[in-house]
């Protein structure tokens, strides 16, 4: 199972990302509360995309913020002070649930020990 970062979810609706859509459709995909907030709160969100994203989140395994993710997020913030809180929560979700994080911003997560990363849009 993979954890699809916000940018991957958004790219999956953009023209020219057919290969990404194909890859996502062949995998079991997870999300988390922060990813859902980032995607559905995206300032450029249009109505057709909003419905598609809502469907995506209904179909994905959606991990909620819990004590294990909170504890891992705190650890990550202490180890990497420049890590943004949403990224810490996303990385913590992947670590706690043993998920590979698919993101177009791999450099934001690159120094997190034990985190499996994949950039499917390179």
CATH level-3 fold name: Rossmann fold
Supply the number of structural domains: 1
Give the biggest sheet. 5 strands, parallel
Q: Can you give the mean pLDDT?
A: 96
What does the secondary structure layout of this molecule look like, with pairings?
Layout: E1 2-4, H1 6-11, H2 18-25, E2 29-32, H3 33-40, H4 47-59, E3 61-63, H5 67-79, H6 85-96, E4 100-102, H7 106-109, E5 117-118
Parallel strand pairs: 1-2, 1-4, 2-3, 4-5
Can you put this structure into words, describing what you see?
The chain has a single domain (2-118), classed as 5'-nuclease (Rossmann fold, 3-Layer(aba) Sandwich). The mean pLDDT is 96. The protein starts with a strand and ends with a strand. Helix 7 links the parallel strand 4 and strand 5 (117-118). It is an alpha/beta fold. The protein contains seven helices and five strands, in the order E-H-H-E-H-H-E-H-H-E-H-E. 52% of the residues lie in helices and 12% in strands. Helix 5 crosses helix 6. It has a five-stranded parallel β-sheet, with helices on both faces.
Summarize the structure.
The protein is 52% helix and 12% strand. The chain is α/β, with parallel strands linked by helices.
Q: Which features would summarize this protein structure in a list?
A:
Rossmann fold, 122 residues, alpha/beta, globular, 5-stranded parallel sheet, 7 helices
């Amino acid at each position: 199972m993979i954890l699809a970062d916000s940018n991957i979810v958004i790219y999956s609706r953009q023209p020219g990302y057919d290969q990404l859509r194909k890859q996502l459709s062949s995998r079991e995909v997870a999300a988390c509360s922060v990813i859902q907030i980032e995607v559905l709160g995206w300032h450029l969100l249009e109505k057709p995309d909003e419905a598609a994203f809502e469907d995506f989140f209904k179909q994905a395994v959606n991990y909620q913020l819990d004590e294990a993710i909170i504890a891992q997020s705190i650890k990550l913030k202490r180890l990497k002070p420049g890590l943004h809180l949403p990224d810490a929560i996303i990385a913590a979700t992947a670590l706690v649930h043993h998920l590979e994080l698919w993101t177009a911003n791999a450099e934001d997560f690159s120094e997190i020990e034990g985190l499996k990363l994949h950039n499917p849009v390179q």
